Each structure stands twice: as C-alpha cells, then as structure tokens.
Amino acid sequence: MKDHHPLNCLAAALIAAASLSVYAADPIKIGISIAQSPPGSVVQGTQVRDGVEIVKNMINQQGGVLGRQIELVYEDNQGVPEKGRAATEKLVTRDKVVAVTGGHQSSVCLAEIEVAKRYNVPYVNTNCWSDDIRIKGYAQVFNPGNYNSRVAGAMAETIASMGVKRVIAFCENTDYGIGQAKAVAEALKQKAPGVEYKYETLDRAGKDFTPAVLPLRANPPDMILTMLLPPAAYILMNQLYEQGVAPSAKTWLYDGAGIADYPDFWQNVKEAGKYMLAFGLYHPQMAAPKLGTEVGQAYLAKTKNEPNRLIFQAADSLLLIVEAIKQAKGTDADAMIKALQTMKFQGVRGEFQFSKEAGYKYQQWVDIPYVTYQLTEANQPISKTLLVQGPGMALATGKLMKPAK
Fold first, then answer.
1. Upper half-sphere CA count for residue 259 (Cβ side, 13 Å)
2. What is the pLDDT of residue 375?
3. Burial of 294 (0-12, 13-18, 19+ CB in 10 A)
4. Residue 200 backbone dihedrals phi, psi, to 5 degrees
5. Is-contact 203 170, C-beta < 8 A?
6. Whether the Cβ atoms of residue 124 and residue 144 lie closer than 8 Å to each other
7. How far apart are CA 161 and CA 195, in angstroms?
8. How far apart are the C-alpha atoms of 54 and 99, rounded to whole Å?
9. Which residues contact 18 (CB under 8 A, 6 or more apart)?
10. E strand or H helix that includes residue 15
11. Which residue from 232, 242, 173, 244 is spatially nearest to 208, judged by alpha carbons?
C-alpha cells in the first residue's frame, strides 16, 4: 500500500488546480477564412480582418468571454472555392476553432458551408450575397450580411423610378455575379416589366473587357449595371469611361456590388467613378447604435479611412459568435447554434433576429438596411455623396445628376 502523505496529496491537488486554471484560461479559437492573396478580393479580405480585429481587441480588453480571451485563427482562401474548403477543414480539424466566419465571396462560402455542415460547426457568413447559400437550409449557417434578392429588389425599384427602357448588366462569372444578374431579371419582371434587360458574363480574372464594351458605342443602352468585384470591376469601369459609353449623357452607370466605399476605389477609377449610381449598405447619414459609432471611430483611428459596410459586417459576425458563446454558456456547437437561431441580437448595425423562413430568407437578417447614392465628384468621400434613398427615406431619383456629354 502506498503512503498517502498529506504533503503529497496537497502537491497533487495544487498541480491539478493549476492545470485546471490554465485550461480555463485557454483562449477560445475562432476561424477567419478570407482572401489575403489573388485571385481573391484582397481589398475585401483586408477590411474583414480590420473589422474582426477591432471587435476582438474590444472584447479581450473587457476580459474576454466567459473569462477567456478570443483568439482569431486566419486562413487565406485566395477567393478560390477549393482553397476555402481546405481552409475551413484545417480550421475545424487541426486548429479546433469553435466557429468560422469572414467569408466574403459567394463561390467560396458555398464550398465552406459544406465543411461546416459536415462537422456541425457554426458558420457566420460575413459578406457572401448568393441566395443559394441560404436556400441550402443548413442549420449551421447564419447570414447577417446582404443577399442578392435584397439588392435586386432595390435596384429594380430605382430602375423603375428612373423610367429607363433598356438596361444591360455586366456580371462576373461567379455564383455572386450570375446570381445577382438573374435576381435583377426576376425583380424587374415584378417592378418594371416594360424594361428590356439582358446580362453578359465577364471573366473575373480578365484584364481587357473592350470586346464587350465597344459594341455599346454604336448602340448605347439607357443604363449599365455592374456586378463585379475589384480588380475586374475597376478595369470595366475605366474601359466604359475611356470608350465614352458610361457614365454619359445617354447612359447611366449603376453598381450593384457595393464597391464605391472601398479604400482603393478612387485611386483605381478616378474620373470613371463620377456620376456612378451605387447600391450600398452603409452611409454616414444612417443612424447607428453607440457600438457602431465606436467601431467606426476605431477603424478611422487605425487606418485614417472612413469606415464602410464591410467593417461593420465583419464586426457583427464576430459579435454574433461571442454572444452565442455567452448564451450557450460555453462552446458546444449545438448550444451555440440554438442560441444563434433564437436570440435577438443587438450589434453595430442595429437589432435583428434571424428568419426561420425557408428559401433565400433562411437564417438571414431579412430587413438589412441599404442605401442608394450617387457619386457627384471625383475623389468624393461617401459622406459627401448624394443620398438618393435610405432607411425610412423615399426614393428621390429626381435629384440625380448626369454628365453633359
């Protein structure tokens, strides 16, 4: 029989207590899958990273969640679905993250949510707009960002109000681009059935779109819609401008991808951006909760750039996961998923609850606020743009400006 000396027992108890306290203090790991290198949208990836880092720092400075710090584990998905799938698999199986967020390109999100479903890990979609992500109906996937049907309805209302007759859309060859082009077609059938509408698909990795632009010189439409992410979006805008197609006295240019508030927008498009009409998810004139103001100020202090919608979307994505951990009283996946499904969330953009309705509204913030505005001067900050429509504000297309020629 072993001698159970009191000092030995005390030492064993102290070691056990020490190991438990270390375990309790282990950080909670959350996976962030973003594009940090081409061909992905690196500008979007950078903004998502800025948004989640600001919130992580705020949470950790306040003592973390359930007494534990938040640790963000990043993977570069390069905007490629296969890379996104591999990134999510690594985050879940090797890094042991409790949730994944950051997704900002629809084709990548569609690949990543399959992994989240397979391993039953909460996945918060930061900025993937494709309706197909929602239509899948996966219990693990939550959508606090924008969706194509929301954009399509907004754009169709504006087009109907402006009275244009012939519209051509250029979309990127991705789930986002093609999905938005088709959603606009459906929305126009409801809101402006007299409009002649067609779309043309462009390679998102393309460098020269003049073969698609040149034919429009002889027969310009009333409006051109763009549904591409940078750098393709910037290349197309410059070529439309160089060829005198749009914006022009004859043809409006209307962006549906929300690119006008990117920090590198004006340095890439210069005069080509003047008079562009834009769908957006943030405008400084929109009312914001106190927390939203704090996040915006932190971003401005960090980067010297005006905050934009991706900063706030990323912030809310991480805050949702943290709130789910709080309500679940831990990191059990099923408990977190149930919390996300049922809670009323107060974030940086307002209060909402996820919809239970099947289809493109599934686990979606359905009434996500949006704005329509026009850039009236080159190098114009968003705060100085012409706000055409916003939450609680009637559409005012009569204020829109057009080039003289």
1. 29
2. 98
3. middle
4. -125, 135
5. no
6. yes
7. 12
8. 18
9. none
10. helix 6-25
11. 232
CB-based contacts of 251: which residues, under 8 Å, 6+ apart? 216, 220, 221, 222, 223, 224, 245
**Distant-in-sequence contacts of 182-185, Cβ < 8 A, 24+ apart:** 183/131, 183/148, 183/149, 183/151, 183/152, 184/151, 184/152, 184/155, 184/156, 184/225, 184/256
Q: What is the pLDDT of residues 149-177, one digit of tens each?
A: 999 999 999 999 999 999 999 999 999 99
Question: Contact, 226 vs 245, CB < 8 A?
Answer: no
- What is the DSSP code string of 319-357? HHHHHHHHHHTS--HHHHHHHHHH--EE-SS-EE-----
Residue 389 has pLDDT above 50, yes or no: yes
Question: Which DSSP symbol is given to 192?
Answer: -
Sequence length of the chain is: 405
Nearest CA to 257 out of 156, 172, 329, 334 is that of: 172
Structure tokens belonging to residue 201: 């698909």
User: What is the distance between the alpha carbons of residues 320 and 328, in angstroms, rounded to a whole number?
Assistant: 12
Rounded CA gap, 25 and 21, in Å? 6
CB 95 within 8 A of CB 31: yes
CB distance 125 to 321 below 8 Å: no
Residues 326-354: tens digit of each pLDDT = 999 999 999 999 999 999 999 999 999 99
The closest of 206, 210, 184 to 197, measured between CA atoms, is 184
Q: b or e along 20-34 (b: 16 or more beta carbons within 10 Å of the residue's beta carbon)?
A: eeeeeeeebbbbbbb
Question: If we measure between CA atoms, which residue out of 54, 47, 52, 70 comes closest to residue 298?
Answer: 54
Which tens digits make up the pLDDT trace of 225-266?
Answer: 999 999 999 999 999 999 999 999 999 999 999 999 999 999
Instruction: Note the maximum CA span of the chain.
Output: 100
The owner of tokens 């310009």 is 220
Alpha carbon of residue 84 to chain centroid: 16
SS (H, E, C) 17-31: HHHHHHHHHCCEEEE
